[in-house]
């Protein structure tokens, strides 16, 4: 009897599949067994009664009850500052810090007003220019000044209308952003600060300042011989 080739091939494939399934099952079982070797069954044994009795027999800390009178006494003592744990007060140090913080601005004002050669006052018509001080702060020279208007109209100024030259005749770059733009006719001083980089004043001993009003340009406020040498 001749066997069909298709049937033989089918049988061969079935045999191979069965062998592959068996090998896979054996291999999977071995891998699972190795993975579960470290897993142990939880201990479900009853707890030893001797240990429970030993724990129960251990002495417990007693709770100390405070008397109400003692609590009230301690509270009153702390309020009055006589308790043992009351923090010592430090009124002296607070007063000292307050006094020092109050005296610092005053000392600064005295230093500004007592600078030799200042203030320098110039007047043109009803406008007064006062140069109060010229001091180095960090890397800049700060020139503090006041403007007063004793006239009957408001006077306006522009920073571009100010010229600052040194004793060598060189024009210096000045930051005049804090220059007051207008001065009311009330006679009250309006303060301003000019800033000049210290790098531009290495060989400079004195400065000259010229300022005029805007837009009329009728005022000629000029201050010379401003000492700036360190």
Question: Can you put this structure into words, describing what you see?
Answer:
The protein is an alpha+beta fold and 230 residues long. The chain has a domain at 120-227: Immunoglobulin-like, CATH 2.60.40. Helices cover 32% and strands 24% of the residues. The protein is built from four helices and nine strands; from the N terminus they run H-H-H-H-E-E-E-E-E-E-E-E-E. The protein has helices at 5-35, 49-56, 68-79, 91-113; strands at residues 120-124, 127-137, 140-149, 155-156, 162-166, 182-183, 190-197, 206-211, 221-227. The strands form three sheets. A four-stranded antiparallel sheet has the order 1-2-3-7, with no helix packed on it. A three-stranded antiparallel sheet has the order 5-8-9, with no helix packed on it. Strands 4-6 form a two-stranded antiparallel sheet. Strand 1 and strand 2 (127-137) form a beta hairpin. The longest helix is centred in the N-terminal third of the chain and has 31 residues, at 5-35. It is elongated, with a radius of gyration of 48 Å. The N and C termini lie far apart (127 Å). The relative contact order is 0.09.
């Amino acid at each position: 009897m001749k066997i069909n080739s298709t049937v033989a091939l089918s049988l061969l494939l079935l045999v191979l599949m069965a062998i592959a399934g068996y090998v896979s099952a054996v291999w999977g079982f071995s891998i699972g067994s190795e993975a579960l070797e470290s897993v142990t069954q939880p201990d479900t044994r009853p707890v030893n009664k001797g240990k429970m009795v030993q724990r129960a027999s251990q002495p417990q800390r007693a709770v100390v009850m405070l008397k109400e009178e003692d609590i009230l006494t301690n509270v009153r003592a702390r309020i009055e500052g006589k308790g043992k744990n009351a923090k010592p007060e430090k009124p002296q140090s607070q007063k000292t810090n307050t006094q020092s913080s109050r005296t610092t601005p005053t000392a600064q004002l005295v230093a500004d007003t007592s600078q030799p050669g200042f203030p320098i006052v110039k007047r043109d018509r009803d406008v007064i220019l006062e140069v109060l001080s010229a001091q180095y702060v960090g890397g800049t020279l700060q020139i503090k000044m006041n403007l007063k208007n004793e006239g009957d109209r408001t006077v306006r100024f522009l920073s571009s209308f100010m010229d600052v030259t040194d004793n060598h005749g060189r024009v210096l770059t000045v930051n005049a952003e804090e220059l007051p733009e207008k001065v009311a006719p009330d006679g009250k001083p309006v303060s301003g600060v000019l800033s000049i980089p210290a790098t531009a004043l290495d060989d400079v001993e004195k400065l000259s300042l010229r300022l005029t009003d805007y837009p009329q340009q009728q005022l000629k406020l000029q201050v010379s011989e401003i000492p700036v040498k360190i």
